[in-house]
Amino acid sequence: MDIKGTVALITGGASGLGAATARRLFDAGASVVLVDLPGSAGEAFAAELNAAGRVRAGAPGDGSPAEPANKAVFAAADVTSEPEVQAAVDAAVALGPLRIVVNCAGIATPGKVLGRDGVLPLENFSRVIQINLVGTFNVIRLAAAAMAAAEPAVTGLGGPERGVIINTASVAAFDGQIGQPAYAASKGAVHAMTLPIARELARSLIRVVTIAPGIFETPMMAGLPQEAQDSLGHQVPHPSRLGRPAEYANLAAHIVENAMLNGETIRLDGAIRMGPK
Ligand SMILES: NC(=O)c1ccc[n+]([C@@H]2O[C@H](COP(=O)([O-])OP(=O)(O)OC[C@H]3O[C@@H](n4cnc5c(N)ncnc54)[C@H](O)[C@@H]3O)[C@@H](O)[C@H]2O)c1
Fold first, then answer.
1. 42 C-beta closer than 6 A to ligand 1
2. What is the pLDDT of residues 144-196, one digit of tens each?
3. Which member of 26, 137, 183, 216 is catalytic?
4. Cα 12 to ligand 1 centroid, rounded to whole Å
5. Which domains can be identified in the chain, with CATH numbers?
6. 183 catalytic, yes or no?
7. CB 17 less than 6 A from any atom of ligand 1
8. Residue 107 C-alpha to ligand 1 middle, in angstroms?
């Protein structure tokens, strides 16, 4: 499917991988709805994208700002909330048929089963599952309903399609480390639900693909000391560095454009296989 002229909803769109993907899709001519928490940078980022879009569109002779064909909109929402996500989907549909969903909202709170402070509180485990897994599913189901209601698009090389849903797992889905039982479980489940949902939504001409990133240079990682970040980068066989958000965004864009990618989880990790810790 061609990206230009579509509407894309990106969760976690105010930061890191989600923000890079929003920028990539917006620059390729999609309207983007940035779904993120109310306290995030979503509003300012949407304004930045719109300003860049106006410059790209070229100012008319009278000097007034040009209006680009595509827009960026911030929809404050917690991905675990049914009404808030429904409102974000409605905001997307108000811009045109929703064709692209990228699920990037997530948290990586670590916690050992038996940590320094004792046994892991059950609510800590549940919170990670709730945001990373249940939140992703909440967005998928409400967005899929909106996508399925639209007419199929016939753009690009792939034939008629209604939409593409891209999820974000992690290499922790396969090589979870000590301290990651909740995170690995949530990401393993995102990987596991990719195929059944792709199989079901095939009849609606909607594809579902998951990206499992290795270690990427985002605010999530910036919380670690520089030394730890460098050490993680050196563990990547090639290229021996952290991944760049633009590299994730490029894969997301390719998934939209390549109609044969479906029901699959793609590792994007420079061949890293995480050790136990
Ligand atoms: N950075 C990495 O190395 C890496 C590796 C593997 C997987 N991932 C996954 O990629 C995704 C994006 O991570 P990132 O590195 O860009 O992190 P990030 O912290 O930069 O961005 C995550 C965004 O999600 C938002 N968010 C968190 N909880 C939310 C909620 N309940 N509702 C709505 N928005 C919420 C945050 O406000 C933030 O803007 C996450 O799912 C993460 O688990 C990241």
1. no
2. 999 999 999 988 788 899 999 999 999 999 999 999 999 999 999 999 999 99
3. 183
4. 6
5. 7-268 (3.40.50.720)
6. yes
7. yes
8. 5
Q: Is the CB of 210 under 6 A from ligand 1?
A: no
Q: Are 26 and 50 in contact (CB under 8 A)?
A: no
How many whole angstroms from 151 Cα to the centroid of ligand 1? 31
Categorize the per-residue pLDDT at 124 as very low, low, confident or very high, splitting at 50, 70 and 90.
very high
- pLDDT tens per residue across span 50-92: 999 988 887 666 666 667 789 999 999 999 999 999 999 999 9
Q: Which residues contact 195 (CB under 8 A, 6 or more apart)?
A: 263, 264
Q: Edge to edge, what strands does the sheet with 206-213 contain? A: 72-76, 31-36, 7-11, 98-103, 163-168, 206-213, 264-268
**What's the CA-to-centroid distance between 158 and ligand 1, angstroms?**
30
Cα–Cα distance, 195 to 205 (Å, whole number): 14
Site of tokens 């050196």: 234
Tokens representing 205? 């001409």
Residue 154: partners with Cβ closer than 8 Å, 6 or more residues away = 160
Helices 135-148 + 181-201 axis angle, to 10: 20
Q: Does 217 sit in the ligand 1 pocket, CB within 6 Å?
A: no
- Give me the pLDDT at residue 102, please: 99
